[in-house]
Design brief:
The protein has 234 residues and is mainly α. The chain has 2 domains: 139 residues, Serine Threonine Protein Phosphatase 5, Tetratricopeptide repeat (Alpha Horseshoe), CATH 1.25.40; 82 residues. The protein contains 14 helices and no strands. Helix 1 packs antiparallel against helix 2. 42% of the residues are buried.
Length: 234
């Protein structure tokens, strides 16, 4: 959550040997999740392939854990339809876990982003309605921030003049309430809808976050948005 993915990775790597937890599939699922966040699709898929016992249980938390890891793996593999399907499978556990549960805090933003990438406005509105139907106290702060961001993206897609203000408010909310990873994605969203100077600053900040977290999908997205510079003149 704080963006210290190197420490998280080190803890996950040493736990099986140092703590005798080699057979705990829950930790393997977390390793898959972290690998997917960083864009290492083969490592994520390998970790997910070994979750036979976890997949066999009907426990809502176990199912949500797998669904989130699979969703981020699909996102890293640039398969937004699969990412959306898995993220919504995690959200299906809201009745048992509560909408503000850790896994659902990560699943909702990914579902909304995947739906945006697919231009699936109907699903975006369904996801917004899911959060809107919850009492404010049930939502995690980062979900409220991501809801603001999803609304800003919709406003921009519809060409509404309020979009820049909505993006600015969403970015401020992400800074205060969300994770560095989600802030970086929000900054890149913002960069697509502002003038070149503001866009360059947003892309630069997002890239700095991606470098610190060694997050290749964010680096790739920042590179896609960075305008090509003319060659230097002699």
């Amino acid at each position: 959550m704080t963006g210290d993915w190197d420490t998280a990775g080190a803890e996950l790597a040493q736990a099986p040997d140092g703590d005798g937890l080699a057979d705990i599939e829950f930790l393997a699922c977390y390793r898959a999740w972290l690998a997917a966040l960083r864009g290492d699709v083969p490592a994520a898929q390998a970790a997910l392939a070994g979750l036979a016992e976890l997949r066999a249980t009907a426990d809502p938390q176990d199912q949500a854990t797998i669904a989130v890891a699979e969703a981020f793996t699909a996102a890293a593999d640039r398969r937004p339809a699969a990412a959306l399907r898995h993220a919504r499978a995690a959200l299906d556990q809201a009745g048992a876990l509560g909408i503000g549960h850790e896994y659902l805090r990560w699943a909702w933003p990914l579902a909304a982003r995947a739906a945006h990438d697919l231009a699936d406005t109907a699903t975006i509105r369904e996801l917004l309605a899911l959060l809107d139907a919850c009492p404010p106290g049930r939502l995690a702060p980062m979900q409220r921030a991501e809801r603001d961001l999803a609304r800003a993206r919709l406003a921009a897609r519809d060409g509404k003049p309020s979009a820049p203000e909505l993006f600015a408010a969403a970015i401020a909310s992400l800074r205060e309430r969300s994770t560095p990873y989600h802030l970086a994605h929000g900054l890149l969203d913002y960069a697509q809808h502002v003038d070149s100077e503001a866009a360059e600053a947003a892309i630069r900040e997002a890239r700095d976050i991606a470098v610190r977290q060694r997050c290749q999908p964010l680096l790739d997205r920042a590179a896609d948005l960075t305008p090509a510079r003319p060659p230097a003149q002699d």
